[in-house]
Design goal:
2 copies of one chain form a homodimer.
Chain A (H helix, E strand, L loop, with lengths): L1 H9 L1 H12 L11 H17 L4 E5 L7 E6 L7 E7 L19 E3 L2 E3 L7 H16 L6 E7 L7 H9 L8 E5 L10 E6 L1 E10 L5 E2 H4 L6 H10 L22 H9 L4 H8 L12 H6 L3 E8 L10 E2 L2 E10 L5 H15 L5 E10 L2 E2 L5 H14 L4 E5 L4 H8 L5 E4 L14 E3 H21 L2
Parallel strand pairs in A: 3-6, 3-7, 7-17, 8-16
Antiparallel strand pairs in A: 1-2, 2-6, 4-5, 5-18, 8-15, 9-13, 9-14, 10-12, 11-13
Chain lengths: 457, 457
Amino acid sequence: MQKAIAYARERRVTYLDQFRDWLRIPSISALPEHGADCVRAAQWLAGHLREIGLPRVEVIPSQRNHPLVYAEHARDANAPTVLFYGHYDVQPVDPLELWTTPPFEPAQRGDRLYARGASDDKGQVFAAVKAIEAMIATHELPVNVKLLVEGQEESGGEEIHAYVPRHRKKLAADCALVLDSGFFAAGVPAITVGLRGILYTEIEIQGPKSDLHSGVYGGAVPNPFHEMVRVLALLHDKSNRVRLPGFYRAVREPSEEELRMWRALPGSDADLRAEVGAEGLTLEDGRTSLECRWSRPTLEIHGVGGGFSGAGGKTVLPAKALAKVSMRLVPDQKPEAIFKSLDRFVRRQVRPAYRVDVRKLSTGRPWVVSSEEPAVRAAAQAWTVAYGAEAKFIRVGGSVPIVDVFKNTLRLPVIVTGFGMPDDNLHAPNEKVELPAMWDGVDAVIRFFHEFARTRR
Amino acid sequence: MQKAIAYARERRVTYLDQFRDWLRIPSISALPEHGADCVRAAQWLAGHLREIGLPRVEVIPSQRNHPLVYAEHARDANAPTVLFYGHYDVQPVDPLELWTTPPFEPAQRGDRLYARGASDDKGQVFAAVKAIEAMIATHELPVNVKLLVEGQEESGGEEIHAYVPRHRKKLAADCALVLDSGFFAAGVPAITVGLRGILYTEIEIQGPKSDLHSGVYGGAVPNPFHEMVRVLALLHDKSNRVRLPGFYRAVREPSEEELRMWRALPGSDADLRAEVGAEGLTLEDGRTSLECRWSRPTLEIHGVGGGFSGAGGKTVLPAKALAKVSMRLVPDQKPEAIFKSLDRFVRRQVRPAYRVDVRKLSTGRPWVVSSEEPAVRAAAQAWTVAYGAEAKFIRVGGSVPIVDVFKNTLRLPVIVTGFGMPDDNLHAPNEKVELPAMWDGVDAVIRFFHEFARTRR
């Protein structure tokens, strides 16, 4: 292990040049005009994996120019197998004018490298690749390794969701390492042991068949916005709890141990309030903000389309109102059951003067893993040593649907971690990676492979 | 009078050619790129008024390329004076693809002439101009006449609202004839004796200082849409009444006589429901749709901006929600008092985790005139004879703020009428005017001038 770590440390200058080359490819998966760039980024990665000695590398053709990259290196049939996951696609870069340096011209300022994808997720994939390179070169690879790197994480992920269930055998492993998360705070490395699920819906209410003059018709013709706000307002009670029947029935509370760990983490509710710049927080009674964000389900209204909301005044009685509403789900809520409850509740509430439709746009199940799981413990150990600070077990309020697929389709314990920092500006201008964290990340991955191999002996 | 009527009738072919020329000018006041066209339309009208013998014609320069056209013809100091009002500007034409023939290439199909502005309001102004031409040519003009035609009716009307109070003496008259309304239904000519006022506002609620990830922050950070729908939902009760304190305090009920007239008008609530294609109506308990649209105040939500409402799903916890809300007001509600009530109510309701702002965008007072008013009776008589059917006294639920200015600034009885038909497609594709109604409108204006002169003798 030490040889591999030393090997990688000696080559950081070269590695940085390679990393910059990859970052220059604008692999924005949400924008069809960058389809060819996504393919180039996939090919760059595949070529690089071949160069560092992986015997089997595939670029799996994609309908939408977002190919998966698959590679493997078999050590021996008795060694355990790690399935590594990351993504090479990146978020769009708007608003471009807020970037200090162009998003696809990587620029180092101090210890930071600024570029779109530097942290999310090319930097994390690159660190894993360099760790594997060093272990192969020094004959210190203690496990069989499979890599599955997608190019559509930022725009739906249909390709990988279709691919994994059809390739269970090929992807068979003993654990999955998902490097697309990060630190709890600067100086606090972390292993993510829970993610919320999601149920994204839209609710459409219609009054008249077309937009009407609000002077001529107002007061007699049903305005769908009136019904929409009435129904949406019924979805929360005064304590910020969701009022859908059965919504909390399957909610599993975190353990006392977990709550204790969360309370010991740095930062307070007041810090959160200051960070987001709000006048207050909307917590459930008696719960901290971390509890509310990590272990409680939510219902969020994202916006309501229809009618007029531009500058000035337009006197329209709108034909339709269309609300975007999503729910974050926690174990053991089931998206299908929650959707049924929403659908029934909304339909029952909407009065006969209106037409209503409730549509499910996407779902992802919540996920948790025990911090006692050997693979998770191995990761915590590796991260603690590599970063010189105790890795904490945290959850994340967002949703990473592929984690549930690895768990439930491939039946794997999943490790979700990484070295992203809360201020890395993911999905925002001036995304950056902390280079020391990235180099320590190479060490951390090498250490994890060895720790994990040890647990399996 | 008969000579003037005959004079105009003989010249319809010529008049139609002239009218088409005016309709070809795309005087869309809402679109700055049509500023030069608005000026051209004003100059066309001014030139035409000079040609038909009005001795004093002015195009009053405008900051925003929407000049007023003023003209007068003095008969003698003892004759009464009629101030005529209309507008030469027109609505935008989108969606263009729904027009059968181009909006600025007038096309006759049967008795109908299709063009933007054919009915609203060039056709009505043109009919009045032709009536005046015929009375001048036949020496049968029984009144002094002043014309004030604006070019900004469809986009705010600031010019005329600034002009009238500064030119009270110049505009002094005995009544104002506003030709920008129409029939109650095909075959039912009408005099409009009431208009609702308007108070247009926007309500802005802010949670965090910028949009956030709804997974990472949802459940702890205030979502302004949640507060917005809660507050907006409080603005109506179950009987579709507005819940603002004092909202109905100053509301004057229509007279029994007026209600009886409304009940005798053709059409039913079921007809309205079918016309607008809704599943039902939202009437106040015990009131008909005409009562609700003509004599009851309303509060309408036009739309709510902010967050995300596009295609697909975006997991944003929005920083802001901005609702467009207007109220239609009836006598004797005062826009300022109602705004105060709204402002106070909303500020009191919004909880401390949110910032709120309530802004007044525009106001217009409600207006009614007695059907016993001599000028109104004269118009009813003229319309009844010209159209061969009894003119009804109706109200309109919309707002025409200039009418209140004529009433309260110039202290004039105002006649609001015209020959627009409910199916003229105002503000919509395929606007048309019924040519027989326009020609009868020329007769009607001639008859009105004579009837009105008679009432003043």
